[in-house]
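Check these lines:
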Amino acid sequence: MTVRPDAKLRRGGRLWVVLCIKPAIIGPRDGGHERQLSGGIAMPISILRTSDGKLDQANQLDFDDLAGRLAANPSKVMLHLHGGLVKEAAGLDTAHRLGGAAPAGFGLGPDWEQIYVVWRTGALETLKANWQDLFNNDRIYHVVLKKLIGFVGSKLELPGVTGRSAFAAVNLTPAEIEARLRTPTSQDPFADVDVQIERDTPSGRGPAVAPQSDAALVQEFSLSLQIDPDFMGAADNVSAALTFDPLKGRSIASRGNANTGRDDFDRLDERIKRELTDAVPTQPGGRDLFTAVEVAKFLIKHAAAIVLRIIRRFRARRDHGFYPTIVEELVREMYGDVVGAAIWGMMKKDAADHFVANGCGAALIKAFEAGRPSLLCVSGHSAGSIWAAALIRAIAPMANPPDVRLAFLAPALRMDEFADVLQLGTPFIKAFRMFTMNDELERKDAVLGPGTSAIYPCSLLYVISGVLEDDRAEAFPDAPIVGMQRFLGSDPAWLTDPRQIASARAVHHFLTSPNHGVVYATTQGKPGLSSLATSHGAFDDDQMTLASVVTFFG
């Protein structure tokens, strides 16, 4: 039976007196403060929704109640941070599930105060829709992608076989390239190229590149595009779109489809679009001078820059394999806006904004100062690790910081940023454990979902490392990400920047120290050391992983 709450206890807390044996959840399911009841004992759960780092006003009373409980009775606190690219509804569903009973949830006991932050949302669905549209419908993208595959394949030599290219080894004819790209697949459509070129090199760290100057590479690739009828047809379409006269209802250009060209033009990165539109003559009668040749020149310039970056990554052993590297550099140069490069930067800023004045994270720190938790356990999934890193930075100046046990689930945090955090947090981070995929699984976890490996065959962490990160306003391809096994070896010989080398060594030293460690999925081992997650998004719902996190928290 249930008893209606006393009016004096209505404010925010919604305290229910329940006589029951079976677990029950009472209260609204749209966030805020709940009481999960097990055997008649209340276990507080606080779900805090934020926007631009600030707590939603609808959750303010719930936060005030949380702070009051911490001040009155400091207890063990579990703070979970979901990935930063999911929709709000998914974040709320995850919070409700994890706050519930095992095995689907953490199943924490009545002595735990549970906090779930639901923050920036929705970008992953946008990325998936945009990227699929780009791959399936954009003529420029498709033509340049095919040319890059054939050209780069002809420049990668097989180990120990002088003059023998990957192109020749697997018969990458134009027809074969087209067929592979148009066949839905659950694996990298050009995986056999990697088998050939990486036989004698560490995975993703080869192969030899045919000796040729940058100028010669640019000239050769540029010419191959100039004489390609598909490429020039795509340039005709863009030219028709840019010279379209709305008063006459037609384009001044003699060839091309203005509607198709407008769609292709709109998908291009903003800086390329500005470059093209700024070049269109504005004087009377001058628009007819902006021909497909001019459009092609602009596009070829960017395509040539892509070729150079791909070849340089292979030379420097910073590639992600044959096909992923080509896709990453094409997307980064010409379509960064489509796959969310700007959104990724905004999301990282959003994590930091939680800890400025009036931010939700800053308010949490004040609550921890007023009522120091006996133990603070933090769980961060994917980009939630970036939020967790900002939290550790904010905890460091506390006069008496709580003991922290930190768990990362497939973290998207960059290694140099983690190294900076460890300098501050090592004194109070008493234990650390990371659950993430081994590199073989990481390279097979298509970010857009099953059957989409022809678009891009690897995980979200590979996209972040290969496309989304920059360093000091410069592109940072193959950015070392904490959750990627390829970056966690003891010798960062693949790095050249002394700062990055020092960061990699600091993280490796931390991970191999007592009380810290990494669990690579899939592993079914001792309690606290198991995970059966086989995709990036599975770590916060894999029951084995959740049980291991709870065991680790103690």
